[in-house]
Every structure is written in C-alpha cells, then in structure tokens.
Design brief:
The protein is 62% helix and 13% strand. It is of the alpha+beta class and 459 residues long. The strands form two sheets. Strands 2, 4, 6, 8, 9 and 10 form a six-stranded mixed β-sheet that branches. A hairpin with a 4-residue loop joins β8 (97-107) and β9 (112-114). α4 (166-190) packs parallel to α12 (354-365). The chain is elongated and about 110 Å long. The relative contact order is 0.10. Mean pLDDT is 77; it is low at 14-23 and 443-459.
Length: 459
C-alpha cells in the first residue's frame, strides 16, 4: 500500500483536532444579539467577555463592512479582570445594508484571534420630513397639470381614437408584454448573482406608465390625446396584468410566495388621473376663457414640472447614488431607451403617423417608478426594500436623457427651418419687387425716384 495514502488519511483526521486545539477558548456575549440602526445614528450594545488568557494585550471591536456600520472601541489589557471584561459601546450606522460585529483579541506574540460569536447589524434609512414633502408636492403639481391636460383635450379626436384603438392597443402590448420581458432579461443578464436587483428591475418593468409620459408627449409635440388615453388604459389594465406577471414570471426570481399587490395604491393612481382630467374637461366646457389660458401655459408648465421632479428626486435620494455602479447605470439606461426604440418600431410597423408613434414610444419606454418603489418597499424587509429601489431610481434618472436630447434637436430644427422660411420669404419679396420694376415702360421712373429728380431740378 502506498505510504502517501496513510499520510493523507492521518492529515484528514488530524486537521480538525489541530484546528479545535488552536480555536479561541474565550467567549463573547452580546446583548442584544441583533440590532437595527437608522443611518447616522448610534445604538448601545452590552458585551461580556470571559475566558481571556493572561497573554492578551489588547481587545478591538470591529465590523465586517465599516462603510455600513462601525464601532470605535479598544480595550487595553489593564481593564481585563480575572480573564473577563464587561461593558458597553456604541455602534454607528453609516449606510444601508447588513454587516457583522465581532471581537478581535491580540496576544503578546502579536497573534490575533477572532470571536466565534458575531453581532448581526442592520442599517436602515431614517424617516425624513423631506420625503413626505416631495411626495405631497408632486401629487399636487401633477393634479394641476392633469387639469391642464383635460382642458387641452380634443374630445372629437379622442372619440375617433376610441373607435379605432390601434395606438392604445400597441401601447398596452408594449407596456405589459415588451417591458416585463425586457426588464426580466436585463435583470438576469446584468445582475446574474443579485436576486434583489433582479427583483428591482422586474418590478420597474411591470409598473404601468405614469403621468410623466403625458408630460413628455406634450413637450415633444406628440398626440397628447392618445397619450392620456393610453395612460388611463394601461393604469386600469395594471389591476390584472401586474399580478399576472408577478405571480408567474416573478416567481422565478423569488419563491416566498407571500407577495401582496397593492390594489389600493394602483387604484389611487387611477383616480389621481381621472379626477383632475374630469375637472379640466368641465373647465373646457363651461369656461372657454380659462381654457385658453390653461392651454397656453401647458408646455412651459410641463417643462418646469419635469425639471422639478428630476432635481427634487435626485436631492432627496442622494444616498442611493453611493450604490451606483456600471451595472446600475447600464440597467437604468437600457430599460427605458430600449423601450423607446421598440415602441417606435412597433408603431411604425403598424403604420402610425409620427405624432402617434412618438406617443406610443414615450408611453412604452417611460415606467411609473413610483409604483415600483412602493411595491419594493411594501414587499421586502429593510434594508433590502431601500437597497433594491436603486434600480427604479436609476431608471427614473436615466429616462429623461434621450427625451431632452430629442427636445433640443426639435427646437434647433424648428429654429433653422424658421430661418430658412424667412430667407425664402425675403427672396420672394425681392423677386417680386424686381419683376415689378422690369414691367414699367422704358424711361419711366418709380414715383419716389421721379419726385427726387424733380426736387433736384428746382433752382
């Protein structure tokens, strides 16, 4: 029998004994054994150490990820009494996430031993007044904007669209077939090892388009009537199609099975669209002078609203940008931009005119990230609920970029076309003037030139 075989057998059986003999014989008891801290706050923890050897020179408390939580506590050998130590220390929450706190002991030979016992630490986001202010402010401003939309609606054209709903049908297909499959695929491709981020992407993809699609359609001169109708239809369709996707394809992402879809929340979004629209239609019917004012301010007001939402959202969620990586940026770019492109292609395949195709593309690419954020925070425990919202926040930040570029392009193009028209008009006027002079009899003068000649001949 090969001697090497005996050596391997001895090594296999002896290794655990050696490891056990070298393991720490001291013990650390934390009280409590789990803590949850809000960001930028502290929480006190009690610690009892026992069985410490006389060779211990220093004790240090550490966390696995100091950027999530840290502790500044060093215990000198002079504070150890009879091989034991007891006291309290504070743990500071730095950023969202989970980590572990442990004890590290240093001996006279500079060897370091780590406690087998660990303290689980979870850091969550603090409750802030600015979050509530942002939510209520946006709700009020969007309500006012939808009153403007109602006042600007062409009811006759809207009736025509309802009678031949090709555009809305394309929009619903893009919103509830193309976008869920696209978000699922991007999540698997970009975050293959992150279940939480896949869930964040998928929830963003199944959320129906919100009021931002109507705002951008108005700014870009798309068919606002079709956009509002598509938003209303997709919001109502969300009652059945969102749970369908979440309980089918969503099951492959997570398997806990106790997901509760917030029907009340989605219903409130639908009412938030319908009620101010109805108010705007009433104003259009009974107050024509006020209607003209609302239509006049629709585009500048829509532009200001977009800037307000983007800037305020960035300011209130600055902490999430610390989580941004190249994967997050690619995901935030990929979902809406591919949605715009696929929506435009679908519209053109079905021979939609440019204003209708633009409305369909915008409606397909823009997601209601507010619903996806709510779903994530409603479904998942903290801090996963906040950590996964980095996906819809990234989508919300990246979505306006191509639309802003398109808006600038259309403005420059319109300015250049207006300049060309003015040049052509000036040229036509000059040609007409030259032609009129050429038709006068020889020797005749223009009245103004003739009067000037007469004035010069007077003595």
């Amino acid at each position: 029998m090969c001697p090497m075989k005996y050596f391997l057998l001895v090594a296999v059986f002896a290794a655990p004994i050696i490891l056990m003999s070298s393991a720490a014989t001291w013990k650390a008891d934390f009280s409590p054994n789990f803590i949850e801290i809000q960001m930028h706050l502290e929480k006190e923890v009690k610690l009892q150490l026992s069985g410490l050897a006389e060779t211990v020179t220093e004790i240090v408390l550490k966390t696995s990820e100091a950027h999530i939580a840290d502790v500044d506590k060093r215990i000198p050998a002079s504070e150890i009494n009879g091989g034991s130590w007891s006291g309290a220390f504070n743990v500071t929450g730095n950023f969202l996430g989970k980590t572990e706190l442990y004890v590290e002991v240093t001996t006279v030979t500079n060897d370091k031993e780590v406690s087998e016992e660990k303290l689980a630490v979870t850091v969550i986001r603090e409750n802030r007044v600015i979050d509530k202010v942002f939510t209520y402010t946006v709700a009020i401003v969007v309500g006012i904007l939808y009153i403007n939309f109602g006042a600007a609606l062409d009811l006759k054209l809207l009736k025509t669209i309802v009678m031949c709903p090709v555009g809305p049908a394309i929009g619903v297909f893009g919103q509830f077939v193309v976008m869920p499959l696209l978000s699922y695929g991007l999540g698997k491709l970009i975050f293959p090892n992150s279940h939480a981020m896949q869930l964040g992407m998928f929830f963003t993809g199944v959320s129906p388009a919100g009021g931002a699609s109507n705002v951008w359609t108005a700014i870009l001169n798309g068919n606002i009537n079709m956009s509002v109708l598509m938003t209303t239809v997709s919001t109502l369709a969300a009652f059945g199609l969102m749970p369908l996707w979440i309980f089918t394809l969503g099951k492959t992402i997570f398997d806990q099975g106790n997901l509760i879809v917030p029907y009340e929340r989605i219903g409130s979004f639908a009412l938030a669209l319908v009620v101010p629209l109805a108010v705007g239609i009433i104003i259009q019917r009974y107050f024509p002078r006020l209607t003209r004012i609302l239509v006049l301010v629709l585009k500048p007001f829509s532009t200001l609203l977009i800037l307000f939402i983007v800037i305020f959202a960035i300011v209130t969620n600055l902490y999430l940008f610390e989580l941004f990586s190249w994967q997050i940026i690619v995901a935030g770019l990929g979902l809406p931009w591919l949605g715009f492109l696929l929506g435009w292609v679908l519209a053109k395949v079905f021979r939609q005119v440019n204003p209708d195709a633009l409305a369909i593309a915008v409606e397909t690419g823009i997601q209601n990230t507010g619903i996806s954020i709510y779903l994530l925070r409603f479904t998942l425990p903290q801090p996963e609920a906040d950590l996964t919202t980095v996906a819809p926040v990234s989508v919300a930040v990246m979505t306006p970029l191509p639309l802003i570029v398109l808006y600038i392009f259309l403005k420059v193009k319109a300015r250049l076309n207006r300049g060309k028209r003015e040049l052509l008009e000036d040229k036509e006027i000059a040609d007409v003037s030259e032609g009129s002079q050429e038709t006068l009899p020889q020797g005749s003068l223009v009245p103004q030139q003739e009067s000037e000649k007469n004035r010069t001949e007077v003595p």
